Amino acid sequence: MNTKRQSASAFTFIELLVMVGVLCLLACVLGAGTSMNRSSSNSFQCLDNHRQLMAGWKMYSDDNGGRLVYNLPGGGAEVGKEAWVAGVLDFNNGNSANRDTNMLVRHDLFKYAAFLGPYVKSASIFKCPADKSFVTVAGQKIPRVRSVSMNNFFGERASSFESSTSYTIYAKVSQIKSPAALYVFLDEHERSINDGTFYADPDYPYSMVDIPASHHDSAGVFSFVDSHAEIHKWTDIRTMPPTSQPITLGAIIPGDEDITWLQQHATELK
Predict the structure, then answer these.
(1) pTM
(2) Higher model confidence: residue 35 or residue 191?
């Protein structure tokens, strides 16, 4: 009776180590790729949000004889204090402005604010997907509703940081000479953002009144009068304070060229 022996094959220890090493390498590559895709997705979404905001901003102006939407600092709560969005953000868990999207889009509820609501519809475009700031309500983490602010030089009732300025404050589209060079909206640092206005101060070199966001790999998103949106890379670490630590607003930061860029693209000389 003939019998056949079947030889059993197995991995050697060296082969097993090589296979484990290859699997670990693949896991690292896939992990890095997933992280990069997530970052790219956030950037793409943020840029699209800005484009939609600019579309609403332009439609409001078209419907109002070329006048720009109100941009008075504050809560937009009463006549004479109109603001493009209602409410002032902070990290107070009891402050409804941190979580109430109606303050962004429901002009029917906020008569002196939320002016772009009838044009943009969705409140989600006011928040950068890379902004992870939140407040805690009843033990639950609630994402804050807004990341974006408006350039202080644009809008009805807009103002400069200084009581007297050498630069143009734009109340109408017709005043704007360089639409491709001037930003209207930008994402603001989580600990800097409060009302809907972002202040640049070109009358004083290296004056950082408010702080821009750097959510996208040390870069921030801006949208310009001509409706294009772009990601601008910061070069000075002082422009990018950690979101986990207290910050100083209204500082003079000598030599910070990021501040110079912000000032140069905020307005024009009269």
Answers:
(1) 0.85
(2) 191
